[in-house]
Amino acid sequence: MNQIDHNLPMPAHCLILGGQKSGKSRHAEAMAVRWLSQPGREAVLIATAQAWDEEMQERIARHRADRAVYASGLQTVEEPLQLAQAIRRCSAPQRLLVVDCLTLWLTNYAMPIDVADADEATGLRARRAEFQAAKLELLAALQSAQGPVLLVSNEMGWGVMPMGRAVRAFADELGLLNQAIAAVCQQVLMVVAGQAVDVKALAHNAVHVGNDQGPQPGAH
């Protein structure tokens, strides 16, 4: 299994995936700390969370307290929606950006909007179109970024699929977003129980092994 060599140079961009409490955010912070160990470097966290309720307020406060201990040199910028603009504004050759996280960024577009019931469907369609445009802007911003970007996101596709139509649609949208981001990242990590595996390297190696071996007997 491809474990991560922390002595390797930082990739241009890296997508860090994992389930709830998998350690993905902590791993991104550890990568930022390693980046900051070299002189003349900076690191900025772009936080997408919004404090919708008391539980979310407590979660945000807990993350801030943890970062103060584990990644004290990491500056923070809060941007719940205009992620592409934040990357363009903050990116620099000696500055690492950490986006935490894409799941909440999508959530901010998918949250119920304050409209009358009769206009809800129209409003949701408009919000979805707005997100699709923002997604394209994000991909363009990553491709033109001057420095490396780490992007944290959830992998939701391995659990029991919820019954609600809206939640299934959200899971689909997040999966498509993760695929699009992975395509423009040089490294894709999967974090499970605090352990990170380079799945893009595994996929690359599997393709080469398959090509070297040729068609297998009985393959159709």
Structural features, described:
The protein is an alpha/beta fold. The protein contains 7 helices and 7 strands. A 7-stranded mixed beta sheet has the order 3-2-4-5-1-6-7, with helices on both faces. The N terminus and C terminus are likely disordered.
Order of helices and strands: EHEHEHEHHEHEEH
N/C terminus separation? 28 Å
Shape: globular
What is the mean pLDDT?
86
Q: Stretches where pLDDT falls below 50 for ≥5 residues?
A: 1-8, 216-220
Strand content: 15-25%
Total E-strand runs: 7
Radius of gyration: 19 Å
Percentage of residues assigned to helices: 40-55%
Question: DSSP helix count?
Answer: 7
> Widest sheet: strand order?
3-2-4-5-1-6-7
The major β-sheet equals:
7 strands, mixed
Based on helices, strands and strand pairing, what is the structural class? alpha/beta
